[in-house]
Amino acid sequence: MAFTEQEIHKLNQQFKGIPPEEIISWAIQYAENPLVTTNFRPYEVAILHAVTDVAPKIPVVWCDTGYNTPNTYKHAEELIARLHLNVKLYVPKQTSSHRDAVMGIPGIDDPRHQLFTEQVKLEPFRRAMEEHKPDVWFTNLRQGQTALRDSLDILSLSRDGVLKVSPFYHYSDSQLDAYLKDRNLPNEHKYFDPTKVLENRECGLHT
């Protein structure tokens, strides 16, 4: 499905305040090849629950950097089993042990940091998108996370023209806490992204 920027702007105005499940149902009815991406970071359970409640068999693309915390891996396994997620796992072509030996985790001022990010996050993500070729991409982007994400909305277009749908875009942490509590869903806060270092730094997938 193809929308102009003007149409997306109008839809975003209409969707503000609409329950996430209604936004998801709207997108699913137009989608030919939807997917949802996740890294099992805090509050990811919200988008995974909401999307699979509408489309149980939707591909769930997980690009695992190989540097997640034990808590994150246990949380991921719990959600995969509980929500019956149709996970499509993508990992870097080089193991974390190999990379640790020759590079480690470069700081953001290290010239090798760009190569590190390419290896552990961007290349696996591009590989996933090329294989699945989605027309609708569900994400858990939210306003207030980064400057770039503040410029987006519930609906936005990726560089490749894929419609990104972020049904929880206007939700605060407290609203998401309530959403999870009402549905008895678990959360996990011990998460580590080796490419970001700082919490408000953009990861590179949405630029």
From TrEMBL:
Gene3D superfamilies: HUPs (3.40.50.620)
The organism's place on the tree of life at top rank: Bacteria
Domain spans labelled Phosphoadenosine phosphosulphate reductase: 38-187
Pathway: Sulfur metabolism; hydrogen sulfide biosynthesis; sulfite from sulfate
Signal peptide extent: none
Alphabetical list of InterPro entries matching this protein: PAPS_reduct_dom (IPR002500), Rossmann-like_a/b/a_fold (IPR014729)
Similarity-based family: Belongs to the PAPS reductase family. CysH subfamily.
Protein name as annotated: Phosphoadenosine phosphosulfate reductase family protein
Organism: Arenibacter arenosicollis
